[in-house]
Amino acid sequence: MLLLAAVAMCMSSCKVERFLKDDELVLYKNKYRVEMADSSKVTKEVKDAVGSKKKYARQKPNSKVLSIDPIRFKLWVYTLSSPKKNNRANRWLRKKGQEPVVYSESDARVTAMQLEGLMESKGCFRSKVTFDTLKVKKRDITIEYKIKAMPRFHIEKAFVHSEDTALTELMEKWAGDSYVKAGDMYDRENLAKERTRLYENLLNEGYYTASKELVTFVVDTTDYGNHGLTVTTVLHRPQGADGEKKSLKVHRMDNIYIYPEVSANEEATDTTIYTYETKHFTTNYTFIHSAKKMEIRPGTISRALTLFHNQRYRPQNSTNSYNSLLSLRNFKYIDIKYNESPNSTDEVKLLDATVRLMRSDQRRFSVSLEVNNASSLGTKENRNFFTSGNFGLETTLGYQNKNLFGGAEILKVEGSLLLELPKLVFTNKALKFRDAFSAFEGGLNISLDVPNFLLPFTGNIVWQRMRPHTVFTIGGSYQYRPYYERFPANTSLAYTWTHSRRARNQLIPIELTFVKFFNLDPALVSRLNALSDLRLKYQYSDHFIMDARYDYVYSTQNIGTRQNFHYVHLTAETAGNFIHLMSLASNGPVDENGIRRVWGVPYSQYARASIEYKNYLYWGKKSAFVSRFMLGVGLPYANSSLMPYEKAFFGGGPTTMRAWQLRRLGPGSYNGNDGGMLEKMGDMTLVINLEQRFPIAWVLEGAIFADIGNVWLIHKSEEFPDGEFRFNNMFRSMAIGAGIGIRANISILTLRLDFGLPIYDPGYNKEYRWRPEHWKFSSIVTNFGFDYPF
What we know:
Layout: H1 2-16, E1 26-36, H2 44-49, H3 73-79, H4 88-96, H5 105-121, E2 128-135, E3 140-149, E4 154-162, H6 165-173, H7 188-204, E5 215-220, E6 228-235, E7 251-259, E8 270-277, E9 282-289, H8 298-304, H9 315-327, E10 331-340, E11 349-359, E12 363-374, E13 391-401, E14 410-421, E15 439-450, E16 469-481, E17 484-497, E18 503-518, H10 522-529, H11 534-539, E19 543-555, E20 565-575, H12 577-585, E21 597-598, E22 601-602, E23 606-619, E24 623-636, E25 684-697, E26 700-712, E27 735-746, E28 749-760, E29 781-786
C-alpha cells in the first residue's frame, strides 16, 4: 500500500509544473552540514548549540508522510486541483492540500543569517554560515546550509552587582537558582531566563516598580584564548520622572477597595467599611456598591482575600485572592489592580488595591439524560435477566442556588429517575404498571456547600490559600427490582481544600448510610435461604455503614488549551471501626451467625482503596488519544464477610466496560445462571480504557475504543465459582470489549452515543470465549448519554 502511494506521489510530481512559473523550483529538502572552522572534530557542545537549527529555516519543504521523502501527500492532493478553475471541488482540494513551496534565494540568505545569530547566541562567536543549492529533479531543489562553527565559550566566572547593597545581598542569596553559573556553557537564552527570574523574585519581595529592563548583563571576553567568559549580572536603579535614578523601594498595601457588584445598569453610590481581623493583620475593606443591600455579605468576600493592610506587596497574594474568589462560584468576572496610594511618600511606598467583581447567575436548573440498550449476547445458554435486550433510561433534574444565606452558600437539590424496560413493553401485550419495569429507581439528594472550614477551636486562622469548603449532604432513594425493593439513605460531612493549583483534597470524617430491604420475592428468599454463602444473604439484608474517607485529586490540565495532561484520583476509606470498638466495650449483642448489630441492624466493617489514572494526548487540530487505568480493592473484615452493596465494585456500564450493561459482568470467570436475581459485583476491580477521538464534520466527533477489565471476589465463593481473583488466571478472566462512538459537541453540551461489542467474554466456557459468531449486530450494547465517558 505504501509503495503504491509512493508511486502515485512520484507520478504526480509532473503535475506540480502547472502551478509554477518557468524559472520557479520547488523546495525539496533543507540539509545542514556542521564543521569546525579549524577542521577539527565537531564537539558535543557545538552539536548541542545547533540542535534547534531546523526551526530557523525561513522556508520549509512540503510535508511528507512518515517523513518519507518521495511521499509529499498534501502536495499531491493540491496538484489534483486545476489552477484554471475555482469551483467548489478545486477549492476543497487546495484547502486540504498544500501549495508548492517555491524556492526563494532571499529567504535562504535570511535563514543563513538567522543561523549565524543562533551560533552567536549559543557562544560560538564569529561562526559563518553559507548555502548551496542542488537540483534533485527537473523542478525540485535542495538547499544545503554549511555551518563553519567556532569553539563554544563557557562561563568562567559569574558575578552579581547592584548600586544598592541590600539588593546585591538579595541577588547573592538567590544565586543558587541562577541560570548563569560558572562552568555552564554560554547561552543567551539562559540570560533571558535569568532576567525573568530576578524580576519575579523582586516582585515577590515587594518591589512593585521593578522591571525586566533594570536587569542587564556585562560579558567580558578577556579570557578569549581559553574560551572563557566573565558574566556580571547588573541590577540598575529605576529612573524617576525627574530623570534622576532612585532606589527600588518595597511597597506595602494601604487601602483595599472592593466593588462587589460591577454592573452597567447600576451605579456605585454607597460605601460600607468592613473590618476583618486575623492573627497578624487588621484590615478595613472599603466596599463600594449600589444603594441596595449587598447580596453577598462583606465578610464572605473579605475572608476570600489574601490582601491585608500593611502587608508587603506580592503578586502571589493577587493570585491566591483571585482563586479564592473564583472558588466561591458566584462571580463571572474578577479583576484586581494596584495604584500608588495618595498616602505614599518617597520613603514609605504604599499601594491601593481595587477588586472588581461581577456576579454570575445565582440560580440554575439542569437536566441530564442517559439511555442504554443491550441485546442478546449470542447463543449463550445461561441467560441473565438484565442482558435480554432491556431498554434503560436515566434522567436527572437539578436545582442550584449559589448564595442561599448571603454567604455564598451553595445549595444543590438533585432528583434522579432510572427506568429499565423489558422487551415486552414494546409489544402489544397489556402489562400491569409494575410489570412494565424490570428496574425502577427514584432518588433525591440535597447538599449545602459553605465556603469555610466549620471547625471548633480554630479561632482566626487564615484558610484563604487553601480555598476551604464544608459540605453537608443528605439523600435517599427508592429502588425497585423484580425480586425486591430497597431504600438506601445517607448523610455526610465533608471538608474540601486545595494546597496547590493542581491538587484537591476531600476529607469525609463521617458518613452514615442506612439500607432497608422489603417486599423480597419468595423466589429470591428461597434462593437466598438455599445459599451456603452468607456473603450473598448479607447483600439483600438491612445494614448500616458508618465510614470515613479521604480523596486526593491531582490534574495537570490547563483548561481552555489542548496541552497534554494527566489526572490522578486516589481514595482511601474505612468503615465500622468506631462502632465495633463501642460494641466490644459495651458487650453488644451478637446474632447466631456471629454478626454484631447496632439498633438491631448489622453494621459493615471494611477497608477500601482505589486509584484512577487518566492520560490525555492531543494531536492534530482536534484529535486526542485518551487512556484510563482504574484499580480498586475492598477488604471486608471483623463484622463483615463481604463489601456492602453500596461500596462494592460493579462491572459493565456506559463509563467503564461499555460492551456490557451495568452490573452484568463478572465476577471473574463466573458463568452461572441466577435468573437475573443476583446482581454481579466484586471486592476488587481492574479496568483499562483506550479511546481514540477524532473529528468527523461540523460538531460531530468520532471515537474508536477498547475496554479491558472485570471485577473479582477476594475470597472463594460456592455461589460464584471461578469468581475469585487469582494472579495465575488474571489475564484469562479479564473481559475485552471494543466499539465505536459518535459525539456531538453542541455549545457546552456533549451528546454521546457508543456502540460496544464483547470481543472476549470470560463468562463463557473457555472454548467459546473468542468465538467470532458472537461478534454480530445483535450482540451490540448501545449507550447514550451526556459528556465523555472519562
